[in-house]
Design a protein that fits this description.
Blueprint: H1 2-23, H2 34-39, E1 48-52, H3 54-63, H4 70-84, H5 102-105, E2 111-116, E3 119-124, E4 131-135, E5 152-158, E6 161-167, E7 174-178, E8 181-184, E9 189-199, E10 202-211, E11 219-228, E12 245-249, E13 255-259, E14 262-263, E15 266-267
Parallel strand pairs: 4-5
Antiparallel strand pairs: 1-2, 1-11, 2-3, 3-4, 5-6, 6-9, 7-8, 9-10, 10-11, 12-13, 14-15
Length: 273
């Protein structure tokens, strides 16, 4: 009986494979060749772990704010007032991915760049490990892309600079200037980045952000990151809800995470005042 039960699945797999092969026009991801790997030796050394230069973030926020539309500027002014009053809006504390362009604008965590043939991958520590895929294999953006927090990114090399074009961002993805001040882009945001090495230890990301529902004109800004070679900076797993749980054991002796009980924002049983 078990053997006969598998036959329809096997038959379907063969038929489906034949149909796909016959189509012949589906894009594929070919395996990289030796020459592909050798060509990467000519690219700039972007690989490794980078940490954001926080002082640069603060300086850019003060000296080069986004050109907000008047109605958006009112929202931003209110957010700054709330932050000053000790009631910051939680831009990145709601368990959703930070998303682009906030990923590059306001992150306080390390991220790692991996270069492989046809792709540059960015791995971060927040929200269950942030992930950006930048395709450098010459593909265009999809004609009908599925919007996401980080969008769809394609890139190409201009000398020693990686030029990245990002579209298809969810309207809920924030355009943020710090962890408490930012506005959802509300759709139709477009980001162009020019990522390059300033010196052996500093990476620069020159961003041009077009968000017609928020900004009166495209916003150009730069963020800097410092290379970290020491192993203590290797990126680690980050899960946004994990801080709300304690290590525990269930009735069967299994290791589990148990929710922490809170009263007026303070964990029950905590010595915190």
């Amino acid at each position: 009986m078990k053997i006969h039960r598998f036959w329809p699945l096997i038959g379907f797999g063969i038929a489906a494979h034949t149909a796909f092969a016959a189509a012949g026009n589906e894009p594929i991801n070919p395996p990289p060749t030796l020459s592909d790997w050798q060509a990467m030796a000519k690219l700039p050394d972007l690989g490794g772990v980078w940490t954001p230069l926080i002082s640069d973030q603060v300086a850019q926020e003060r000296s080069n704010p986004p050109p907000w539309k008047p109605e958006i500027a009112k929202q931003v002014e209110h957010m700054y007032a709330e932050e000053k009053a000790g009631r910051p809006f939680p831009i990145i504390d709601h368990c959703f991915p930070t998303g682009m362009p906030s990923y590059m604008l306001i992150t306080h965590n390390a991220f790692e760049i991996l270069l492989t043939p046809g792709r540059v991958t960015l791995l971060g520590e927040g929200d269950g490990n942030r992930l950006r895929r930048i395709y450098t294999d010459g593909r265009p953006h999809p004609q009908d892309p599925d919007p996401s927090f980080h969008g769809h990114s394609i890139g190409h090399w201009e000398g020693q600079t990686l030029v990245v074009d990002t579209v298809a961002l969810l309207p809920q993805a924030y355009l943020a200037v710090n962890e408490a001040v930012g506005v959802p882009n509300n759709g139709d945001m477009h980001i162009v980045e020019r990522i390059h090495i300033l010196d052996g230890h500093t990476l620069a990301d020159d961003l041009e952000i077009t968000a017609n529902k928020l900004l009166s004109k495209p916003w150009k800004t730069t963020r800097k990151y410092i290379r970290q070679r020491a192993q203590k900076y290797d990126i680690v797993e980050g899960v946004c809800e994990q801080g709300s749980y304690n290590d525990a054991v269930d009735k069967d002796g299994n290791s589990i995470f148990a929710p922490i009980k809170f009263h007026q924002g303070v964990p029950v049983g905590s010595d915190s005042k």
